[in-house]
Design a protein that fits this description.
- With about 300 residues, the chain is α/β, with parallel strands linked by helices.
- It has two domains: about 220 residues, P-loop containing nucleotide triphosphate hydrolases (Rossmann fold), CATH 3.40.50.300; about 60 residues, Alpha-L RNA-binding motif (Alpha-Beta Plaits, 2-Layer Sandwich).
- The chain contains ten helices and 14 strands.
- Strands 6-7-8-3-9-10 form a six-stranded mixed beta sheet, sandwiched between helices. Strands 2-1-4-5 form a four-stranded antiparallel beta sheet.
- The longest helix is centred in the middle third of the chain and has 16 residues.
- It starts with a strand and ends with a helix.
- This is ABC transporter ATP binding protein.
């Protein structure tokens, strides 16, 4: 049994637009899975069909073995959704939003209160538990929507752009929480425009383009297909020109900084051996390459 199985899923809208063209997709139990695609590629339609917010044209969806057509209540009870758009009652207190949401799943008020308290603490919202939503920052609202999606302890959590508009510090803390949630057994399906986020968090990935799955593999296997990386290096002493650094391609940025383009098969030890031979002492190094972004753009552009 898988967390999610999609077979020959199609969606054609009334205006004739074919949003999904018979996709097949499997997400394993306990996976942290990225579903990526450009705007209009079909990923939002896919999420809408899984959560029954959109009506399919044909195909099958199964969640933890429950067919979404035959056993919709059991299937939907396995799901928690964090939508891209804010959809909170702005005049309701944070803790009451969670307790009321739990009530939709038949959870008693005492148990709901206990679970709400745990989530509010874990997501850094404890001090705001009695505040109404309209007084929260954007980042707090995002975290509250995650808490609401988890209040009934679903087996599958779907996150649609969960960190949009959130500052870096809060984003990192949300990453930590989601990683911990996944480690405890919750299957997570993520859509995001922050490709660094998908690379950092996800084990497996599918890329959808023009209503079709064009890549479905492990994150590790996909990143291995990248042929080169670019590093930014800072030197201990100022330099006015770079010596020959063959077989690498180098570009001087300023008198302490240069970029080095390196084949993916080359180890950093080999890189530093060449630099040492040329008399360059390195103070710091960082990887400039947004690896997943390069591959993503290459895949969707190659398919057109």
């Amino acid at each position: 049994m898988h967390a999610l199985e999609i077979n020959e899923l199609r969606k054609t809208y009334a205006n004739g637009v074919e949003a999904l063209k018979g996709i097949n997709l499997t997400v394993k139990k306990g996976d942290f899975f990225a579903l990526l695609g450009a705007n209009g590629a079909g990923k939002s339609t896919t999420i809408g069909l899984i959560t029954t917010l959109v009506t399919k044209t044909s195909g099958k969806i199964s969640i933890y073995g429950h067919d979404l057509d035959e056993k919709p209540d059991l299937a939907k009870a396995c799901l928690g959704l964090v939508p891209q758009e804010f959809n909170l009652n702005i005049f309701e207190a944070c803790d009451q939003i969670l307790i009321n949401q739990a009530g939709f799943y038949g959870i008693g008020r005492k148990q709901a209160r206990q679970q709400a308290d745990i989530l509010l603490q874990q997501l850094g919202l404890w001090e705001k538990r009695h505040s109404i939503v309209r007084h929260l920052s954007g980042g707090m609202k995002r975290r509250l929507m995650i808490a609401r999606a988890l209040i009934h302890q679903p087996k599958v959590l779907i996150l649609d752009e969960p960190t949009a508009g959130v500052d870096i510090e809060i984003r990192r803390s949300m990453w930590d929480f989601l990683t911990q949630t996944n480690a405890q057994g919750t299957t997570i399906i993520l859509t995001t425009h922050y490709l660094e986020e998908a690379e950092q968090l996800c084990k497996n990935i599918a890329i959808i383009d023009q209503g079709q799955i064009i890549e479905n593999t492990s994150m590790r296997a996909l990143l291995k297909t990248l042929h080169h990386q670019t590093f930014v290096l800072n030197t201990e002493s100022p330099i006015t020109e770079l010596p020959s650094l063959e077989p690498f391609s180098a570009t001087l940025i300023d008198n302490h900084t240069f970029e080095l383009r390196v084949d993916n098969q080359v180890s950093l030890n080999d890189v530093f051996s060449v630099l040492s031979e040329r008399g360059l002492r390195i103070h710091s190094l960082r990887n400039k390459t947004n690896r997943l972004e390069e591959l993503f753009l290459d895949l969707i552009n190659h398919d057109h």
